[in-house]
Amino acid sequence: MEYGGGGDDAPDGTRWIVLVVRVPAEPSRHRVAVWRELRKTGALSLGQGVWAVPDVPLFADGIGRVLELTERAGGEAVSLAATGRGSQDGRRLRAMFTAARSADWAEFIADCGKFEAELAKEIRIAKFTLAELEEEEQSLERLRRWHRDLTARDVFGAPEAAEAGERLKVCAAACEDYAERVFTALHQVPEQRMPEEGRREPGEESGR
Fold first, then answer.
1. Which of 15, 18, 73, 183 could staple 30 via S-S, CB 3.0–4.6 A?
2. Which CATH number fits domain 15-83: 3.40.50.720, 3.40.50.10260, 3.30.70.1130, 3.30.300.30?
3. Residue 76 has what DSSP assignment?
4. At how many degrees (to 10) do helices 130-153 and 161-187 cross?
5. pLDDT in tens, 134-147
6. What is this structure's pTM?
7. Quick one: pLDDT band at residue 66, thresholds 50, 70, 90?
């Protein structure tokens, strides 16, 4: 794949796959399944039933699943290889695609904030249990998988990607800190009080 320059009347070298998808309105589950797969793939919506992705191997499996779901639903899909008529068209498509990735990154960064806030709350209320630690570690792993997926789809490099990477590191460090607190709390030996001999309640007289 080439990202070329050139004048406004020349293609910029970026190749795209454009999908024109039509799925029957009923039952709605088929239409929803196709839409979700397109969103999961990272396809850019260009209008009603028209989607586009950069023509790179990363998107091949997702496009294949969209075509399969569309056929299974009794719909129709046309897959076209395309380039902009001029570099200006290519730049617009790239800007639109990158804007969609920026929105994805913003959502990811917001979820990192929620994760950090959740850990801070557990520390504040001293909820140091293995069950809670396992839940937080699962949430961190979900963030890591999400980050990998977004990085793969971010073909042109959205500006928010760098901040997202740093926020993920902060989340990982916060989770490690919480894990250490959990293990410290679980390994702490409870204080034992020795029984007091001859202890009497106030006002109680000793017998003779």
1. 73
2. 3.30.70.1130
3. E
4. 170
5. 999 999 999 999 99
6. 0.81
7. very high
